Amino acid sequence: MAPTFSSLENTPDPYRRVWRSLRPGLAATGAISAVISVLMLTGSIYMLQVYDRVLASGSVPTLVGLFVIVTVLYGFLGFFDFLRTRMLSRLALRLDHVLGAQAFHRWLGSAQPAAQPLRELDAVRGFLSGPAMSGLFDLPWVPLYLAVLFMVHPWLGWLTIGGAGIVAVLAWAGHRMTQSQIARSLTDDAIARDFADRSQRNAEMIRAMGMVGSVGARWRQLQAAGLAAGQQAGNPAEVIGAASRAFRMLMQSAILTLGAYLVIQGQMSGGMIIASSILTGRALAPVDQVIGQWRGIGKALESHRRLAAFFAADDGLAPVVALPAPTGQISVSNLVKLAPQKGRKTDAAQLTDRPRLLDGISFDLAPGDAMGVIGASASGKSTLARLLAGSWALDGGEIRLDGATRDQWDPAELGRHIGYLPQQVDLLPGTLRDNIARFDPEITDAQVMAAAIAAGVHDMILHLPDGYAARVGGLGESTPLSGGQVQRVGLARALCGQPALVILDEPNSNLDAAGEASLARAITGLREAGSTVIVMAHRPNVLLATNKLLILSEGRMVKFGDRDALAAGPNLHVVSSQPAPQAAPQPIAAQPEVAALAANAS
User: Among 26, 205, 295, 588, which residue is least crowded by beta carbons within 10 Å?
Assistant: First the structure.
């Protein structure tokens, strides 16, 4: 019994398993191709009978009877050809149905940023339902036509085999010459598309700074590289395809010439000449069709290899036990994050050569704690936020939530209890309600409005023409929002559902005084509700709502402890994103915004 869609979606490597589930359908398609190949002999046999029987006897009833039989056989041929096409299209849809969502989920959580599994899946699906697949199914039945030609006369069979051998050599040469270029073309195309997508997302900045020409020139350079690689892959295919078609026509003429000679020698009848020519064309047609689609076949094979590697790299997802909802207790021990890998090195070399973005970070927070993380630019604050939120994988140490490491939780279930506001906030195409609700159909309108009120964005949304139904984040009729508005909507999204752990990466970078006051109230409300809050900040105002402080410097932990105790320390400093011009940075206790910390505490 073939696996069901739902069972395949949850397997560690569904790509191999879905292909196994498609085997019965592909086998049935092969059987249908066998019937089609036999029915393709109809034209040759009919031509042989007309020339050798009907014309010789002059019998009109025989001609009519033969034509009726041919009509019925061609009707069956059309039906089976339609059936094969329909089966291949349904198999392609099944492939996408099983793998589409899985590829999307794994891609979002993948450590392979250059991977494009959705585009690769589109290429494989298009190939599976395209004409090249029909040609490949017809290839195994070429010996059938050769066998019939040998029955007509051995010389005709050997001549056709020789021609097919030449065509096969051309196909093999084309594959060898285009394989590497096709892989390079796919990579260059992906780079150009990624650059275009990122440019579109930053269109306002590009237009404002007069970068349209230079960015366009850079895109043209990347696009030209992809087109050049594609053309280099296509040049041999074009030459070989044209040579194959011309050679196929030459073969038919050669068969006619040899057939005429054999008729003159009295070794076969005149009708066999036409039948042999048709048979030869039919024997070489699948090879010619495959060669004509060679570039598409090569791209599909390359996409197939990349998909197999993508799913294999993400293999090993063990089933997890459903744990209770997290309370917000978090324990971080000796956390290490390395810089991205460059080139191919052994694991030992990577650990030795790659610089450490974070090294030896350790702290513990209880439910209701709010920790501020401060430090100079590039000290590792955003890196720590990504690791705590789970968007990046750690390279050493461990992060435990309620005593369990992240891999012991179901990712989707754990994510519902985590709120994350990244440094660069972006809204997905949809309504404001969709974005705040995280596109979760189980989130109610009351929860959405509660999160918006907590983030101080409820009144702003109500003043929009469509309110919570205003569309954002996409093209066309998208509602324009300021940077501060987008950040506050992102904050509402992070707060939606009262998550147990909330991580905010510079949440006040685009906020005015009213926005910062709303942010402070939101953090206080989260703490009162028992949530744990971690805030990365350059501007110290937000620290007023915290009770813990972590100070980073060049990826290392300088201090961690009670906020008021650290704020009173004489040798600690806060580095602002816009420091005032002075000879030396002020101590943290001397900062005007932070000096109130001790006063508030007393």
Answer: 205
